[in-house]
What we know:
The protein is an alpha+beta fold and 179 residues long.
Amino acid sequence: MTPKLRLFLGAFAVSLALDQLTKNWIIETLTFSDRVSVIDGFFYLTHVRNPGAAFSLFATAPEEFRAPFFIVVTLIAIGLIISFLRKLSPGERLSAFALGLILGGAVGNLIDRLVHGEVIDFLHIRLWAGYSWPDFNLADSFIVVGVALLVLELFASEGEAIADPPGSDAGSVRVPARD
C-alpha cells in the first residue's frame, strides 16, 4: 500500500470512527434537545437533528425529495473524492489526508441519514451579541478541515509555481566558477 493511500485510508477511518462514536455517545447520553454547558455562555453540547444540509438548507423540503437528494449528492461526492484521490501523484500526501477527512465526514453524515433519517448535530457555539452558530458535528468539522487543507495546498503549490516558473533555473544550484 502506498503512503498516499495509507494516509487517505487512515484519515477516513479515524474521522468516520470519531464521528460515529461521538454521535452514538450523544444519543445515549442526552435526550433530544438537551443542552449541557461546557464553557458557559460560549460552548455547549446539544442533541439536535438536522434533516437538511449545512445551515439547515432544504430542511423544510418534502421528505420524498430531501432523502433521495442528499443520498444521491453524497454518493456523487464520494465518487468525486475517489476520482480526485486516483489523480494525485504519490507525493501529494497532504491532499490525500484531506480527501480522507472529507470522505469520513461525508460517509458519517450519510450513515446518519440512512439510520436516523437526519443528521445528528451536537456542537453548539454562541458568538458575540447572542448570535449562535448553527449546531454541527465532527463530520462537518472534518469536511471543513479537509477542504481548508486542500485550499492551503492549492495556494502553496500556486505560490511555488509563481516563485519557480517552468523553464527557469531558480531551483537549480549554481556553483561559482573559480578563476
